[in-house]
Structure formats: C-alpha cells, structure tokens
Amino acid sequence: MPKITFTDRNNGDLIVDAVSGESVMQAAMLGGVSGIVAECGGSMMCATCHVYVHDDWIGRTGERNEIEEEMLESTAEPAQPNSRLSCQITMSDELDGLIVETPRSQL
Ligand code: FES
C-alpha cells in the first residue's frame, strides 16, 4: 500500500496510506489531511486540492494537462513550477513515499 507524506506548514507532517488507482486527493480526504479541501470532489473545477510536489518526485507524478494548467492560475496560494492539483495525480506502487506540501490556504 503506497504511502504519501503531506507536509502541512500549519500542522506538520501526516503520512497517509493510499490505494493504487485512487488520486492523491482521495487519499488525503480519507486520511484526514486538513490542508486539502477538494470542494468539487475531483472534477477539476475548484483548485482547492492544490499541492506542491517535492523536488524528488516532480518528474514522476505525470504532466499537467491544459485544464489543470488553467485551474492552477486561480489557486488561493500562488502556483509554482511544482504545483499540481492532487485530484489529478493517480497513486501507484511506484509513487510509494511521495511527498507533497499543502499550501497555507486553499480558499
Ligand atoms: S478537487 Fe477540485 S480541482 Fe481537485
């Protein structure tokens, strides 16, 4: 079962178990990660699941698509080159140990 570390600037680190095939956002919701809001439930309409992917993992989490790029222009905290919508990162065994940071605010 792959694990994800969510680094939260307000509350510290939280390690969450994920299931291959689910999104990082879904794992965060089930794992009680307070730094992810996910208002739209994963339909790429809210950008409240914004995360910063740790440098060690940025090349392994896939590419942003065009709609994700547009949504990242409306995040509460400024998007950076390592920004992703966590609902668009699909977990797999290869991502075991993934580290993402949650923004100070999602709203
Ligand atoms: S949950 Fe709304 S964009 Fe990811």
UniProtKB/TrEMBL annotation:
Gene3D superfamilies per record: 3.10.20.30
One GO term of the biological process aspect: P450-containing electron transport chain
Source superkingdom: Bacteria
Key words of the record: 2Fe-2S, Iron, Iron-sulfur, Metal-binding
A matching Pfam family: Fer2
InterPro entries: 2Fe-2S_ferredoxin-like_sf (IPR036010), 2Fe-2S_ferredoxin-type (IPR001041), Adrenodoxin-like (IPR001055), Adrenodoxin_Fe-S_BS (IPR018298), Beta-grasp_dom_sf (IPR012675)
Cofactor(s) listed: [2Fe-2S] cluster
Gene Ontology cellular component annotations, sorted alphabetically: cytosol
Cross-referenced PROSITE patterns: 2FE2S_FER_2, ADX
GO molecular function, one term: electron transfer activity
All copies of domain 2Fe-2S ferredoxin-type, residue ranges: 2-106
Family from the record: Belongs to the adrenodoxin/putidaredoxin family.
Protein name per the record: 2Fe-2S ferredoxin
Native source organism of the sequence: Gordonia humi
